[in-house]
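Notes from the 1:1 (GR / supervisor)

We went over the backlog. Supervisor wanted to see one worked example end to end before approving the batch request, so GR pasted a single chain during the call. The sequence is below; no edits were made to it. Supervisor asked that the structure be written out right there so they could see what the output format looks like.
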Amino acid sequence: MPPIKSTDLSWARFEEFSTVEAIFQVVKETVEVSRLTKWFICNSTPELEPATFSLYPQMSPIGPLLASNRIGDQAGHFWKEDSTCLKWLDQQPTCSVIYIAFGSFTIFNQTQFEELALGLELSNIPFLWVVRPGMTKETTTAFPDGYVERVGSRGRIVSWAPQQKVLTHPSVACFVSHCGWNSTLEGVTNGLPFLCWPYFADQFHNETYIRHNWKTGLGFNKGERGIITRGEIKSKVEQLLGDITFRVKAMDTKEKLNMQPPQPFPPVSIVTHFYKG
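Structure output shown during the call:
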């Protein structure tokens, strides 16, 4: 992996010193505890991270672990899923829809939120966008004047989506994601290219893997005010969808995961669960 910027470390995303200090202590204690552990169960696979598992033989890969691998519907969401978006996807052509979702914790300021909205409008491509409650720092999340009317049926906006069902839908062309590990695994196992928009913590490392190691996605460049502009969003959407290489590499990664053999369980009676979040 190429070097990570210090500003991309998890504690660098917060302004309050107490928050920075708390996160630092969590990382420090995790490192100390890890030295006492013989084996780690890791929700990943050597096909995705060969160098990592070569460097750390005490890590036992058992992934990808996805709720879609189990019988029944996924439960335990913070918000109620809007399954009507699946019917909307049914009406869209194959590989034509941009899916945008930033997980449970990403927060935008109003300016960045509006730039994202306008960038999706300028792309002139169908999109499904998850705008959950509390997604902006403001009391209420406001779209640009007349936005919903202008995008019309080309854009579908929901408060929460059945993400794994969305990502398996043939209409979805790419995933604009915060690059949380669960979302990353869900996108990778469905052969989707990414537009990476990390927020904090391991999401920046996951973005690096997507862009530089797997080469299945692109990132965004921020402008002078630290804002990703509507023009940058439109440009990266066009670049990703206009280059079939990203889709080919994403499908190749999916096939490698489908062909992987079951991983043996570590030969120890007690195993510490290491969560890669």
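Supervisor's comment: Residues 268-277 have pLDDT under 50 and may be disordered.
Batch request approved.
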